[in-house]
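step 3/5: co-fold with NAI
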Amino acid sequence: MSKQFDVIVIGGGPGGYIAAIRAAQLGKNVACVDEWKNAKGGPAPGGTCTNTGCIPSKALLQSSEHFEQAGHHFADHGITVKGLSMDAAKMVARKDAVVKQNNDGILYLFKKNKVSFFHGRASFAKAVEGGYEIKVAGATEETLVGQQIIVATGSNARALPGAPFDESMVLSNDGALAMTAVPKKLGLIGSGVIGLEMGSVWRRLGAEVTILEGLPDFLGAVDQQIAKEAHKAFVKQGLKIELGVKVGEVKVGKKGVSVAWTNVKGEAQTLDVDKLIVSIGRVPNTIGLNAEAVGLQLDERGAIVVDGDCKTNLLGVWAVGDVVRGPMLAHKAEEEGVAVAERIAGQHGHVNFNTVPWVIYTSPEIAWVGRTEQQLKADGVAYKAGTFPFLANGRARALGDTTGMVKMLADATTDEILGVHIVGPMASELIAECVVAMEFRASSEDIARVCHAHPTLSESTKEAALAVEKRTLNF
Ligand code: NAI
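step 4/5: write tokens
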């Protein structure tokens, strides 16, 4: 006997669980199916973000940053630490506890919102009158029928050809977050978001880290003035970053990994490391979904084809998050999930892709929203730029963290803010004001005229806005 629902959400990551909650809030009878298992085989909803992405990486970034501060910066404050040591296994256990709090939090939210949760793998069986039949393979088999289906099955790490992930020597984000001992030498392929975050964690804990990046520019999608500043800081911290490389054969032994690579001058090199993290992007996940049973259209990358409203080629089937086009970011998935639930309920859900913020949680942090200076040039947009360094900010000096700057770009004629780019302390939090400003189509003058509390890092945003008109007060 099948169980009937108004909406079935496949996948319990940030796109899926948020869509399920929003649809339930709007009065729908909702099921969410997720197969992720915790170490005991129990449900672990939250997807990559909660289990092997955003949340655990932030836990380890925090722990490793404490260690780095105690070892290198407490002395500046007159604090002496003797016998400083680090227990990587305990750090990882704490991270696991943080993940579990989040898994349990989602299960609680499902109960609170009366979302029926099914632990297992969902796949399309067939189209039926007024909806779709979904099979759930878990501890028990279930047959569900939903009028509307939201697919939010996320993504998987992309492997390097010839070097499949074994999560012991060649690691994806999964293995990179689970090492219980610090490798002496750590190699990373790809200096994107994961490469820099994971490279930072393990360098702070004592690993000798080398990152091999294929592109000649560091963080090519980031405003290049900001990227250069970040690159300088990372190199000073001891991250070895090789740009413009070509990675060749990867040999995996019992004790280590050997990577053949060619440097930017075309010279053959070898990198011998204890562990190798491969962070060269992710691929949409439709494994086991049985999309072909209902004729759900995928593109050549395996992503589900959707329009601007997340509608697929099938009436009543929607897809959100990493499994569709656009940036693979948890908050983008959440916004799409909310918008789809609202559309199903007859409302007008909307996602503004122009104001999706990006954050890289290194130290200094990097955060941005809107267009970069190089994009504005390429688009032929006349703009004004204002920058303000944290070196001139009182709060940053008091914190002892003055690396970086805020950079604001505004339209030369209308003064509308077109982009804000930050490298420096708490950039992840500072960017929120800029997102709000851009969402309301504020001008740089608007920010410049808003009273910002003193002393705060956010005054640097106001000063960058003043700098657009060349009238900074503190620099
Ligand atoms: P990414 O797309 O950020 O970076 C991949 C890097 O690998 C690029 O710089 C690329 O040029 C390089 N690369 C690709 N193929 C290569 C090759 N064969 N040899 C050398 N270099 C190569 O992807 P990443 O870091 O794997 O992250 C995956 C996804 O997860 C991203 O979409 C990211 O947005 C998301 N994510 C977001 C986080 C955040 O918001 N803070 C944290 C971690 C991941």
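step 5/5: annotate
Residues 247 and 345 are 49 Å apart (CA to CA).
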